[in-house]
Amino acid sequence: MALLEVKDLCVSYGAIQALHGISFHVEEGEVVTLIGANGAGKSTTLRAISALQIVDSGSITYKGVDITGKEPSDIVKMGLIHVPEGRRIFAPLTVRENLEMGAYTRTDRRAIRESMEHVFDLFPRLKERLEQTGGTLSGGEQQMLAVGRALMSDPKLLLMDEPSMGLAPILVEEIFDIIETISKQGVTILLVEQNAHMALSVAQRAYVLETGTIGLSGPAQELAENPRVREAYLGGH
User: Fold this and answer.
1) Which among 16, 53, 61 is positioned nearest to 157, based on CA atoms?
2) 31 - beta bridge partners?
3) In degrees rounded to 5, what are phi and psi of residue 22?
4) Which one, of 48, 146, 41, lies nearest residue 91 by Cα?
5) What are phi and psi of 133, to 5 degrees?
6) Domains of the chain, first to last
7) pLDDT per residue as tens digits for the range 162-210
8) What's the whole-model pTM score?
9) Distance CA 202, CA 163 (A)
10) Which of 131, 198, 190 is nearest to 161 (CA)?
C-alpha cells in the first residue's frame, strides 16, 4: 500500500478548473517530484493534499486513511507536513519561536528538544540566529527556517513547494543537499519544484503536470533523458 495515494483529483477556482482528475502515488521512503510550467497545478495539488484547498472530486489516501476534506490540523497530527511556497515564516517571531510553532501538536518536551538539535545539525546558521526575528533573515535563511519548522513537527511525509524559489545558485545546491539528507533519514518527500534539473537529480520518480493533467510519469532519471522533458523543462539538449 502506498503511503500517499491521489485518485482522480479535481480542483477548481470558481469557473476555472485547475486539476482535471489527476492520479499518482508516493511510496514510503521515496522522493517523488511534480514538475511542470507555472500554472500547471503543482502548488494546487499540494494544497489539496494538505486540505488548504477544497477538492471538487476524487480522493486522497494517506497511510490507508481517506483524508479528503479533513481539517488541516488533523492532517498535521498524522505527520503530513507542508513547507509552503514563499516560505510563510512568522516574520515578527524569533527563529526559536518559529521552530517551537512547528512543534505545536507535540507534547513530549524531550523529543521536541531532540528535534530542535536535529534542525541545528542540518542548519547551523539557524542556531547562530536563534533570537533574531524571522523577518530579518536572508531569503536562504528563511527557507532553512521554513524547512526546520516543518521538521519540528516530526513529519512522515513532507510536501515541499518550490524550496529553491528566489535563492542564489549556491543556496539552491545547499537546500537540495538538505532534501537528500532528510530523505536518507527516513522522511518521505513529495517535491514541487520549478528547477526541474535539480528536482530530477534528487527524486526517484517524477510526474510531469501539464495544465492540470499528468502528461508523463516514470523514473526520474528516465524523464531527465526524455527529449520532450529536456526541451520543455531542462533548457533543450
Assistant:
1) 61
2) 189
3) -85, 150
4) 146
5) -75, 150
6) 4-79+155-233 (3.40.50.300), 92-153 (no CATH)
7) 999 888 888 899 899 999 999 999 999 999 998 999 999 999 999 999 9
8) 0.93
9) 13
10) 190
